[in-house]
Amino acid sequence: MLVMMDIIETFLIIQFTICVFGLKNVNIVIEPPIVEKGNSVTIQCNYDLEGELLYIVKWYRGQREFYRYVPQSRPTTMKFPFNGLDIDEDQSNENRVHLRNVDYNLAGNFSCEVSTDAPAFYTNIVSKELKVVELSKNKRLPVLVTDKPKYEEGDVLNASCSSSPSNPAASIYFILNNIVICGPCNTTIYKKEGLWLARSNLLLPLFPSHFNTDNLILRCVTHVTDRYQQEIEIQIYNRPYPIPQRVISSGAILTNGKLLLSCLTLSIFVCFYK
């Protein structure tokens, strides 16, 4: 019985030691998480060794290792060939890898695997997705057109919005006076400039409730992932206001005219009498 208690106590001590001194808080941070093609990105691997010695840190894109850090080796870093991957070694170390001129084919999961040295050899691996977008070089605004310049109650709003070319294709939102009519809307995708152009059409009957304000503003907003947004707006209704007319008192004029006429008549009578 005492032997069994000693075994249990030893097991609990080992478990407690692992909880206190093992490899902890391993996480990966990609900044920015969404990067435009041709720009740079930093992949940060954070960890707490809890007193253990670092043995190795490995970096993966998908299942392929492309970089490792081994503090006991000389040199401490090693690169592995990967098409489209450009590592800035001056800004890379045991905690991070800095990638330059990011290509679209690098989009996907990046992982870092951290291992401590003997005798424990704890290992933990974490992953996070990198998104790469490609935008049109001119980065023009969306194109928003309607079938007529102004609308009234009972009309059907007929509008079309086209995004700037991108990869992936943009999502399109129609917003009328800050109310989202649809979004993301159904889109048709076209190939242009080696990228994707999205287009969406809107048909919306206009009821009296749409005209509770003095203006109707239609906006088209395009999103390429959550990071890149463009928008354009047009005014499709403006409540006409009464134009103030010149106030002319015809009565006063007639009255003045009568007074003037009376005075003239009196003057003529006086002269004739003499």
Automatic annotation (TrEMBL):
Q: Which domain of life is it from?
A: Eukaryota
Matching entries from InterPro entries are given as: Ig-like_dom (IPR007110), Ig-like_dom_sf (IPR036179), Ig-like_fold (IPR013783), Ig_sub (IPR003599), Immunoglobulin_dom (IPR013151)
Show where the Ig-like domain sits: 24-127
Q: SMART domains recorded for this chain?
A: IG
What's the protein called, per UniProt?
Uncharacterized protein LOC108737623
Q: What organism does the record attribute this protein to?
A: Agrilus planipennis (Emerald ash borer)
Its lineage opens with: Eukaryota, Metazoa, Ecdysozoa, Arthropoda, Hexapoda
* Gene that encodes the chain: LOC108737623
